[in-house]
Amino acid sequence: MKQEYVPPVASLLAAIAVLAAASHYPAQARAFPDAVAWLLTILATLDLLSVNGTSAGNRIRGLLNPSVAALEGEAQAATQVRAILWLALFTVMLVLIGILYAVPLYMLASMRLRGNRSWLISLAVAGATTAFIWFLFAGILRLELYPGYLFGGDI
Amino acid sequence: VEEVFSCLKPAAARETHAGRAMLHFWLSGFESLLHARELMFLALGMIIGLLFGAIPGLGGATSLALLTPLTYGLEPFTALALAGGVMGAVPMGGSISAILLNAPGSAPSAATCLDGYPLAQQGKAGLALGAAASANAVGGIIGTVSVLAILPIATRLVLLFGPPELFLLAVLGLVIVSATSRGKMLRGLMTGCVGLLISFVGYNDITGVQRFTGGIAYLWDGVHLVPALIGLFALAEMIQLSVKGGSIATDAKEVQITSMTSGLLATFRHWRTVLRGSLVGTVIGAIPGAGGTVASFLSYGLTVQASKDPESFGKGNIEGVIAPEAAINAKDGSCLIPTLAFGIPGGAEMAVFLGLLVLHGLQPGPLMLIDHKAEIYGLIWALTASCVLASLIGLLLVRPLSKLTLVDSQILVPAVTVIALAGSWAIDRSIGNAVVTAIFGILGYLMIRLDYPRLTMVVALVLGSGAERSFHQTAMMGDGGLSIYLHRTVSVVLIVLIAGLLLSPLYRVLRTGSREAA
After folding, report:
1. In b/e form, how buried is each residue of B247-256, taking b as 16+ CB within 10 angstroms?
2. Closest by alpha carbon to B116, among B140, B100, B134, B130?
3. I need a surface site. Which of A148, A149, B229, B249 has the fewest CB within 10 A?
């Protein structure tokens, strides 16, 4: 599937999911979400048509999305996936082992593996960042740092 | 005669009383700022604003998004002083990178690049930076004076707004922001609808029903606004920088500074340009969704048209720096009017600022202009002080700040990611916030990558629950019928505006067609 199709198709699926879920709610509770979901269905269909390259699609694009830029190639796909995975990894670490362990580990791994920095620099930056986070939240704001799900933290 | 006088007397007394009350709020707002704690946070905000403003891609929205959760333990007014410091200082920071690197710190500063960077290339970076600093300060002051003049009228105007008007205003806000999404109206409306659907998650206070939570307890209170904003702005930009790699500036030789004093005086020599830019900024800032980019480019365009030497623009004309800079800072003050009075942000920065207000229990809307006058005037004073002082500090910090743009993304990205996620957790000490921030960060990056505007989603997230509440209240007022919208003058005006904006692409196409036919 062309990457241009992903957002309108995802939006259509989201609208259908909302309509399906809302069907179980009382009439008043589903009135507004239903209206927005139907509107999204129409807009996503128009967007889908606008990227399919047909003459009708080009007309819709010219009218409603005239300055949409052509997407770059997928040469950076691996870099993008890596950048997103690093963020996902840190989030999972944060949830599982808590702030005090996740922050230095993530900083150290980032500096060493992504930045190719020396052990000394990596350790220094990881230590400084952790100290900053601790000082700010535990020291100044007097918050108990999240201990992590594995160490008794709530989700 | 006596009858006329007896009628006029109470009215005159009321006006005098209103004038005194207004003066009282101006002064109390100013006085509230003159405390060591508030001044300290204002200064902190200024430094952060300068720093983030100077780093392209970060800007005011990102810095506010990162700072908002950190203000959790602060008094509302202290948080507003911090936010005012940031918002007032970001334009100056943006000018520094725009002039030195041809890389605008934020979108409005792009207009400054047009003549600022050629001046820097000619070895006149100091002249351009000096002019930008003084234009920033003067523009900020003119903007403040204009807002202080407009605010009392705004208070009366907002009382005309009931549930039907508030619902239509939310729709208008979404349509305006979509229409100004730089030729992506359909996509703007789409992301707005997605934002609205997200805002429906959780407990609905009108019907008392839990909706779209999927059994996840964290979602009972809905998708929290501030973590979502941190993700959409700060983390999305970090993923983008991470993909791009390297540092923001590629060459250390580009970062050079020469003398600045003559630039400071240039602003006063071109006072007409400053005045024009400030007025453009004030007017555009008050229109929801138009934002600083429209203001700065419009001011630049008008200055070129008014110039006797239009050919010199784009090649290093100092007026080409002064015009957009004055407009950018003047709009900061007037942007507060739609943001505070209607909850419709003038731009991304104001959208995040809305999150900060909500976090501190200050609900934007018509009543805010009546119930929180002291806070509003204090914020305006903080913005003005920040505009003026940040210009001075900016000049002192130009050299060290310019080095920041050489920091490798491999250090900047993880550091900002850590602060963003930890800050998001700190809002109400819920780790679910960090997960929401990460999800919205990825969503925000995909929206940048696939060319879908984020601003309409933010506006929808902010306005969604209020719009639904007004929708149901209006339905109750009109016994379920829609005719109530047509029986009220303000709501008819709003309907006409919405229809006009939705039909504007058709008008544009018809006009282009008739021109081509001619």
Report:
1. bbbeeeebbe
2. B100
3. A149
Tokens for B108, please give them.
Answer: 């409005």
- A-facing residues of B in 30-49 (CB < 8 A) are none
Which residue bears the tokens 């879908």? B452
Q: Output the CA–CA distances (angstroms, integers) from residue B70 to A73, A140, B58, B227, B356, in the order listed.
A: 39, 10, 17, 12, 10
The pLDDT assigned to B265 comes to: 84
Q: B99 CB contacts (<8 Å, ≥6 apart)?
A: B112, B113, B116, B117, B119, B120, B125, B128, B129, B132, B321
Q: How far is B68 from chain A (nearest CA, A)?
A: 13
Note whether B207 contacts A29, CB cutoff 8 Å: yes
Sorted by sequence, the CB contacts under 8 Å of residue B328 that are 6+ apart come out as B91, B94, B108, B109, B136, B139, B281, B292, B295, B296
| Position B9 confidence tier, pLDDT thresholds 50, 70, 90 | low
Mean pLDDT, all residues of chain B:
80
For residue B209, the surrounding DSSP H or E stretch is: strand B209-211
Minimal Cα–Cα distance from B244 to chain A, Å?
A: 9
pLDDT, tens digit (0-9, with 9 covering 90-100), for A131-153 = 988 987 888 767 889 999 999 88
Q: Which helix (H) or strand (E) holds B240?
A: helix B236-244
d(CA A7, CA B164): 32
Between the CA atoms of B397, B89, B284 and B502, what dihedral angle is there, to the nearest 10 degrees?
A: 110
Which residue type occupies B56? P
Q: Are A125 and A104 in contact (CB under 8 A)?
A: no
CB B42 within 8 A of CB B84: yes
Chain A residues with CB under 8 Å of B415 CB are: 107, 125, 129
Query: Tens digit of pLDDT for each residue in B223-243?
Result: 988 788 888 877 887 898 888
Q: Which two tokens stand for residue B376?
A: 């509003």
pLDDT band, residue A73 (cuts 50/70/90)? low
Q: CA B384 to CA B141: how far, in whole Å?
A: 6
Neighbour tally for B471: CB within 10 Å: 20
Dihedral, CA atoms, B406, B231, B341, B105, nearest 10 degrees? 10
Extract the tokens encoding B408: 């490798």
Map tokens 């392209």 to a residue. Answer: B56
Total beta-carbon pairs less than 8 A apart between chain A and chain B: 187
- Those residues with Cβ within 8 angstroms of residue B397's Cβ, 6 or more apart along the chain or in another chain: B47, B50
Nearest Cα residue to B439 out of B268, B198, B248: B198
pTM here is 0.74
Which amino acid type is present at position B91?
A: P
User: Whose structure tokens read 């309907």?
Assistant: B495
Spell out a b/e string for B58-95, using b for 16 or more CB atoms within 10 Å of the CB, else e.
Answer: bbbbbbbbbbbbbbbebebbbbbbbbbbbbbbbbbbbb
pLDDT at A87 over 90: yes
| Integer angstrom CA distances of residue B514 from B181, B453, B490, B507, B508 | 25, 30, 34, 10, 10
- Residues of B with Cβ-Cβ distance to A146 under 8 angstroms: 425, 429, 431
CA angle B380, B260, B302 (to 5 degrees): 60
Handedness of CA A18, B464, B350, B282 (dihedral sign): positive
